[in-house]
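Changelog-linked ticket: pyridoxal-5'-phosphate example.
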Amino acid sequence: MKISQRIQELEESATLAVSAKAAAMKKQGINVVGFGAGEPDFPTPVNIRNACKAALDAGHTKYASPASGIPAAKEAVCSKFKRENNLEYTPSQVMITVGGKEALYLASMTLLDPGDEAILPAPYWVSYPEQIKLCGAKPVIIEGKESNNFKVTPEQIAKAITPKTRVLIFNSPSNPGGFTYTPDEVRAIAKLVADKDIIVFSDEMYDRLIYGNQRFLSFAACSPENYARTLTFNAGSKTYSMTGWRVGYVAGPEPIIKAMAKLQSQTTSGTATFCHHALVEALSGDQAEVEKMRKEFERRAEYMHQRLNGIKGVTCVQPTGAFYAFPNVSGAFAALGVKGSLDFSAKVLEQAHVAVVPGIAFGLDDYVRLSFATSMEQIREGCDRLEKLLGKI
Ligand code: PLP
């Protein structure tokens, strides 16, 4: 049996691998503190669950028509973008997808040919390089420095642009970095690419999850030129704790959305019809739960940041968005007798029963990712264990 070259070259998702290993240990009765999960630990808000139940009872159980999104869902997405992001889209510029992940994959498949280049700032979300490679294109990785909160600069991007550059990936707030570009920083990058024949993938999955005095600015809102060359991605997953529903959305230039919808119609036929209805409620209904969750994440971000910086060999930049801390743990490698983030994570899981995700999966090997989408008790316990294993400052 031959597995295609394309799939042989594909990396397993490291985040899912860590969760699976931690789950296997839990099954054996080991008390593992899991910092691996990239999903909120809250239930999906009740109004959204009720909307889904009502949709099921009303018989919305057939293929969605069109597959790229029922009209009410596309309208709800347009209203969300207008209300929250100052972006004017029409329903023909929008599609509903199987989570944010499908939207991003469809976009890569639609815009990248073999030999093309996509600029990818590291640390990056794990699926980006793999999705780009699946198109036969090349991820051109530029590294955000810890001293700049892992954010890349316009100069770094300018240097990476070649005649083969087709796409720039921009993700703020960031998974895994937990950082957020300020509006001025977004504008500076937007200005650089405004007159270039490059489509920006603005991954805004965590736009509502920002902390302290951060403000969020959508990339496409920077100028009409940027609007014309940006795809804006979002989903129910993180904002509304809907990871398992698999419902995302994307908006951008109509010809691109049309082409993506063509690919979707020949592959997944989109997400479950009742999830389109649930998304309408999520985006248009009561938003009180979102703020409650955001506040709780903010509290955890502060606590985790402070605890991690109290551990020997660990330094951690303050998370300003999403629900991840991304500490530099290289100062603890020697004490643990390890050389990189993979070994570090394995050792920490083995010896302290704490599951973290190795930074190498996100392009930076001196770091690990800890998700604080878990209870305060678990965060406290996990930090205690790490402190015990590595020592206190
Ligand atoms: N983009 C980023 C930055 C993410 O963190 C995730 C989920 O982890 C996704 C996209 C995909 O989201 P979804 O679960 O909606 O497919």
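Closing comment: Example verified and attached. The pocket of pyridoxal-5'-phosphate is lined by residues 38, 99-101, 125, 171, 175, 203, 205, 235, 237, 243, 248 (CB under 6 Å). The CA atoms of residues 75 and 91 lie 6 Å apart.
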